[in-house]
Amino acid sequence: MSWVFDDGGRAQAGFRGSTGDCVTRAGAIASGRPYKEVYDLVNELGRAETPRDGRGRSSARKGTSKRTTRKLMEALGGTWVPVMKIGLGCTMHLRADELPSGVIVARLTRHLSAVIDGVVHDTFDPSRDGTRCVYGYWEFPYDAAAWWRPVLRRP
Known about the structure:
By secondary structure, this protein is an alpha+beta fold. The protein has three helices and six strands, in the order βαααβββββ. Strands 1-5-4-3-6-2 form a six-stranded mixed β-sheet, with helices on one face.
């Protein structure tokens, strides 16, 4: 599977260093919205949630709960498509020939990754040579993809 380095506009927004922002990054890439806008939305949704299991609230920098991730992706225009069913095991992998075309955000184990027409847009290649299981994905309207075509040329 092809992979393109894409921080979703994080560096351009003035953020530096390493962080657990895959939800923010994937949301910015798939929706075409500025990183800072998605970052602020994640933190706003996190402030509104009730912390569970001693983990604290969701944060754009330190991690996002599944519930907040779902609310974020829906707010950005994504539609959830589950692909795993109880007892069936892994039915879809992070491979271009198994994923739908268009703009999606794939839900992986402890990670989210934007995929556009079979190309992973992330800060690293999470595919594990095509063996990484996809639990489901958020599908975004293809019109939202028009913004990213010039982005592919950025260094």
